[in-house]
Amino acid sequence: MKGGAIMSTRFSFARFLAVLVKEFIQMRRDRLTFAMMVGIPIMQLVLFGYAINSDPKRLPTAVLSADGGSPFARSLVAAMVNSGYFDVRAEVRDSHHLDEMLAEGEVQFAVTIPAGFARALQRGERPVLLVEADATDPAATSNALSAMTVLARQALNPDLTGPLAPLRAGPDPVDLRLQRRYNPEGLTQYNVVPGLMGTILTMTMVMMTALAVTRERERGTMENLLSMPVRPFEVMLGKIVPFILVGYVQVVIIVLAARFLFGVPIVGSLALLSVVMVLFIAANLAVGFTFSTVAKNQLQALQMSFFFFLPSMLLSGFMFPFRGMPGWAQTLGEVLPLTHFLRIVRGILLKGSGPVEIVGEVVALLLFLSVVTVIALKRYRQTLD
Amino acid sequence: MTHQDPDGGGDAPFAIDVSGLVKRFNGRTVVDGFSIRVKRGEIYGFLGPNGSGKTTTIRMLCGLLTPDAGEGTCLGLDIRRDSAAIKRQVGYMTQKFSFWEDLSIAENLDFVARVYGLSDRRRRVEEALERLGLANRRRQLAGELSGGWKQRLALAACILHDPKLLLLDEPTAGVDPKARREFWTEIHALAAAGLTVLVSTHYMDEAERCHQIAYLAYGRRMAQGSVDEVIAGSGLVTYALSGPGVEGAAAALAGRPGVEMVTPFGARLHVSGTDPAAVKAAVDGLDLPGLRVAAVEPTLEDVFIHLMRSATDNFAAS
Prior knowledge:
The complex is a heterodimer of chains A (about 375) and B (about 325).
Chain A: H1 3-9, H2 13-29, H3 31-51, E1 59-65, H4 71-82, E2 86-92, H5 95-103, E3 109-113, H6 117-122, E4 128-134, H7 138-156, E5 175-181, H8 188-219, H9 221-227, H10 232-260, H11 270-294, H12 298-315, H13 327-335, H14 337-351, H15 355-382
Parallel strand pairs in A: 1-2, 1-3, 4-5
Antiparallel strand pairs in A: 3-4
Helix pairs in contact in A: 3-12, 4-7, 8-10, 8-11, 8-12, 8-14, 10-11, 11-12, 11-14, 11-15, 14-15
Chain B: E1 14-25, E2 28-39, E3 43-47, H1 54-61, E4 69-74, E5 77-78, H2 83-89, E6 90-93, H3 105-115, H4 121-131, H5 147-158, E7 165-169, H6 177-192, E8 196-200, H7 204-207, E9 212-217, E10 220-225, H8 227-233, E11 237-242, H9 246-254, E12 261-265, E13 268-273, H10 276-284, E14 292-296, H11 300-310
Parallel strand pairs in B: 3-8, 3-9, 6-7, 7-8
Antiparallel strand pairs in B: 1-2, 1-4, 4-5, 9-10, 11-13, 11-14, 12-13
């Protein structure tokens, strides 16, 4: 038996230490990876710990009271606000306006108190109280709606005194009608499947472009490309267009699956959706292109894509109700293109929104796209020299 | 192709005529006041140790980098203003293989032909394939090729658009001797047809195949001329020592005054220095029976190592 043979087969602490030290040195050199390793857990902690709330409160509500200032109507509205679920943002005069607010996503709930509500109540006629919810995201509305059922009775009981006292014992003094608009059965697929369109596009588009350009640099082919008479814009456009096509293929698959596998209704115009889609895809590609001008290798490009993807998933309203988040998280969410695209795609598919209803979101996407494109082109020029 | 085309600078006597080129990266002067003139149809060798600024100089010549100072023309076109026009008439072969490994040979060439907007694309690609013996490998992916074939592909791509100037950055690194010889035969054929070639290399035999050479160290030009001129200009004298026990004499000679280099070549020892009398004295001082001493012409390598030593390292941290 030779000493050397034993040495090489047994675990050697010294050799293990050699590898360990080398790994630590390399880890320290790759600053971006190091920052990601620290940054991603912190980001997840903050987002899951503070931003996400699956029981959203203070949801924007509009009230149409055709019964003037009757005390019963006032008590009802006050009780809704007190429950914490409803935040009455507007009192409107006609039902058309109320409908519009719901369609544009300006409010989550629309409450209609009919004319003669107080009189009908006093006579024990059980007047109708209509509460319509924008149920495209059932998670956002379900708790508020269940709270509403007990709320009506509790709110009115204190007012049912004297001759009205017998009403307290019988069935509900009002006929509460809850309408889940756009998604009457409250199916989560209706919300998730169209949303997936945006999430899948975000993930693949950002990652693909970030990798495609970084790969050229990593393999040394970028230098060759730059020595040929091809202009930066031609390179950028040539690299981006194939992915736009890939994006459309993905969309077609998701739309077909939404319609035929999950039975999601397609109320609005698919033509309008495909036009707006170009903007959204381009915005994501520009983000990916910007990442590629910063990343030194493909691993870094992948990490940066993930760093963008994580808040997009969590803060856009895809996984958790947007309105459940605190103000700062909503502000952050408003910056992300996915947030606006989700509103557009849910609007078009489920609510049948037309160009007028989505114009605000389109403008937001355009703004994002132009800012990021400027950054991308500026950074790309710097790397020439 | 006529010699009178307006943007080609067809009448300029020099294919490259630059002076005082300076390039700095993060405060380091990588190229420091570099000037050369390269005649049309000449093969010009670029020599120098790693990091001497060869690649940076080549990149400035083809417009990939903007010089911090200096000026000049490439094919009669201003290297600062006309880099787009220069790119169209220059073939640049990068040090590292830089074609697309996931494209086939033919697809790579086709891409290059499209980027340069060549009119009769298919015919040009076909000709290039034939010329460099790539025709029966056309469908092979570039990534699967060996070093020698990759280099052929790169050369084929560089000359596809009929450039007037070829810039080759260490084109034969890691290529076997046969492929190297074939490569140089092709380069000479191209030069004979009127193409100007600027080539950087570490190989002395390749340097000797150039019409003119320049030696760079630490971003400065240390010598220039034909191979004979550079050797003569170094003022170096070399003695070849042979005989029993000569290997042992190396250590004894190394420290002697006037001895700059002691290099073993098999059973011989080359002793060089710039002061003939001092070198002779050092050699004569050896007490070795049967020692044979002969004055020989210094090799290019001797000259380069001499030049490299006399250059000051302005990159090293002080």
